Structure formats: structure tokens, C-alpha cells
Amino acid sequence: ILGIIHTAAITVFFRRMPISYYVIGISIQFMLTTAVRFSYRFVLLQRTKLNRNSAGASRVMLIGAGSAGQMILRDLHSNGEINEAVLCIIDDDKSKHGRYLDGVEIVGGREDILLNVEKHKIEKIYLAIPSASAAERRDILNICKETSCQLKSLPNIAKLVSSDVSASQMKNVDVEDLLGREPVKV
Description:
alpha/beta, 16% strand, 186 residues, 7-stranded mixed β-sheet
């Protein structure tokens, strides 16, 4: 639209210019407009990275890069009251390894948990796989128990069906989570 207005204004108020003038002018206007738009996104990305690496933030590892993990990650990024930085994501799907989710790298599977806890100096581990079976949850939580990190997990999928997933729904890991079965009431 700006190119059409520019072409009409130059033709009416000054004189007709060669077509290459208009083509080059429209191209430069397009590049400058996109540069402004992408520079804004770039500045926001850099600011997010600085906030994520700020000194007072708790260092968090997120286990699960599915839809629940994405919602938890976005909630942590957008919530200004929570001072936590997700530094890496663990997922067993090998096709996701090396990719990024909202600027955070998916570093490997459950076998890489201990390595990345040391590498990134993780303080908290969030398990965001509500659809995992009891045996899978127990295996992952047993690996996480070998670290000195604080563990939190989402409740099972049946409890989450009626509501959106957010970081506030994370609960501390209990002994019942490690059983892999319903606790026996005495």
C-alpha cells in the first residue's frame, strides 16, 4: 500500500520516474518494514533470555515437551510473579531432541537427566507428563530422586481434563507417586 501511495505521489507531484526506481523503492520499503518488525521480536527474545538467566531465578528442568509441558513453559515465561527459569527440557521422543520449545532446548531423554542437572546446575525439576503410566512416572521420579533437586509434578490426566494446565497446579512429589499403584488404606 505504501508503495502504491509513493508511486502515485512521485508521479503527480514531481515527474514520472523509471520503473526500476519504483521497484527498488518498494523493495527497500518492504525490507525496512520487516526489519523493524523482526527487530522488535529479536529484542523481546533477547530480553527473555536475560530474564531467564538472571541471578535470582530458580533454575528449572522441565520433563515433558508435550502440550502440558508447553503450557507450563509458557505460563512460567509469561507470569511475572514467578521467578523461575526453565533452562532445559527432557523428552523421550528422539525426534524432538536438539529442537527448541519457546527458546528452551530439548536436550535428551530420561537417561540424560542426571547429566543435565549437573551441566545446568538445576535446582527444581518439573514433571509435566500427566498422561504417563504409573510405571513410567515411577521410573522418571526414581531417576530424579538421585538428584538433590526439588521435585514437582502435574496430577494425572483425569484430574486435568476439566481445566487448563498451569504452573500453579504443580504439586510436590509424594511417596504415593513413587508407588506406581493406589495406596492401601489401613
